[in-house]
């Protein structure tokens, strides 16, 4: 196994326990009946048709979990550890560009336009967001790329309603930077007549587990067909969210993306405050030095990316990526 593969596989065995424990402690303190000071205050809620109440919460600035201290967050009442979206300082920090550098997955998504090649790299860009949530990714993207407009799909209309009331979605719509579509993101994108410069996939089920279709090569083929030459897909396949999350699911998603595109994939394994996420990026190896030079705000986010290419002797359908990583599916 190469040093690069070893580094990724070793990092992937880290457990996101500390931050999640802090969130659970915060929830317990917030629900105390004795009037003790809480770290979260519910400012709005909505019932989801998918069976879980959605909560918009303000996290106290003195919360020991630095990842969310002072933020407005969207969570599910029955899964408070999984933060669906966040916004800080009423959006001023994100829109001004200072959000990049915190190291979170939403910041990393914002590097996508800087990685594009060929036709997709030139001129004004259209980025599709599958799994818009409350628009955190879209807000940070708009704050750093004046030449990007977005289309965002969100399955849950209750999330869209809260996003327009409390997060940046309404502002972005009024500015013409974002068009919101309520419905199935994969079906909607595949049927779209738009040629996208890039696609961001951030889709999880009601238990905050990566949706199963991302392990299906056909899913990625349908999305890749909507890209301009030189375009890329980046997806969140985090194994650190929800019950039963496994590393082998992330690896299966990554290989499916590679097999559906150019037989290569780049994987990001990094985290802020012990909250680990994996991103997978399609296409040829990225010149990260160029990205850091041209987009100084993203310099800190150009690390921890690992590039893999399918071996020439790999049999069709064989789990070549897991083998390259030295990860046993039974123990991942």
Automatic annotation (TrEMBL):
SUPFAM superfamilies: S-adenosyl-L-methionine-dependent methyltransferases. This is PABS domain-containing protein. CDD domains: AdoMet_MTases (cd02440). Transmembrane segments: none annotated. GO terms for biological process: polyamine biosynthetic process. Keywords: Polyamine biosynthesis. It comes from Ostreococcus lucimarinus (strain CCE9901). InterPro entries: SAM-dependent_MTases_sf (IPR029063). Pfam families: Spermine_synth.
